[in-house]
């Protein structure tokens, strides 16, 4: 049975370095060998673009970026039953996300996960082809679509 809970409105950010590798990080609350790109919720009275800038800085300290593309369609994922009611204080069944592709213009030394409310414990750059191999299963469909966007964008 589908949950009657609403979807959380959020953003996701594909951060590319000068070699077009993708930034991924390992979550503090799920330190198994699964990685994700920066993402987060949209606050009240905040545009998706403003949320993207804020979330990226809050999670990674990355501010030195150039926005390359706003992905047209929003992408959604549903939480698996074992996480339903636990994540986001139990208020949402999944997330509907607006995604952005940005170029990181700074140096790796600027990336700092030790932020005010750290979400990640480790980060790395990976080839875009690998993003679907490192993600948790319930986000795989979203990352498959992002991989296609990236392939079309990079080539």
Question: Could you write a compact summary of the structure shown?
Answer:
This protein is 21% helix and 32% strand.
Low-confidence stretches: none
Would you identify the CATH architecture? Alpha-Beta Complex
Oligomer: single chain
Q: Given this structure, which CATH class is correct?
A: Alpha Beta
The largest β sheet comes out as:
5 strands, mixed
Count every helix, treating DSSP H or I runs of 4 or more residues as helices: 3
Q: How would you characterize the overall build of this protein?
A:
By secondary structure, the chain is an alpha+beta fold. The chain has one domain (9-154): Nucleoside Triphosphate Pyrophosphohydrolase. Helix content is 21%, strand content 32%. It has helices spanning 48-60, 131-134, 140-154; strands spanning 7-16, 22-27, 35-36, 39-41, 65-70, 75-78, 94-104, 120-126. The termini are far apart. The model has no long low-confidence stretch (mean pLDDT 94).
Q: What are the key terms here?
A:
3-stranded antiparallel sheet, 5-stranded mixed sheet, globular, 21% helix, single chain, 3 helices, alpha+beta, Nucleoside Triphosphate Pyrophosphohydrolase, 155 residues, 8 strands
């Amino acid at each position: 049975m589908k949950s009657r809970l609403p979807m959380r409105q959020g953003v996701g950010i594909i951060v590319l370095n000068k070699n077009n590798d993708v930034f991924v990080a390992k979550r503090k609350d799920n330190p198994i060998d699964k990685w994700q790109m920066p993402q987060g919720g949209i606050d009240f009275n905040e545009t998706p673009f403003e949320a993207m800038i804020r979330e990226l800085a809050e999670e990674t300290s990355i501010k030195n970026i150039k926005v390359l593309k706003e992905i047209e369609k929003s992408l959604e994922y549903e939480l698996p039953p074992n996480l339903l009611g636990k994540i986001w204080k139990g208020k949402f069944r999944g997330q509907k996300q607006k995604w952005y592709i940005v170029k990181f213009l700074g140096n790796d030394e600027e990336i700092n996960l030790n932020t005010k409310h750290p979400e990640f414990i480790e980060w790395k750059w990976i080839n875009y082809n690998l993003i679907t191999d490192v993600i948790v299963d319930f986000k795989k469909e979203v990352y498959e679509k992002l991989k296609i966007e990236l392939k079309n964008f990079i080539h």
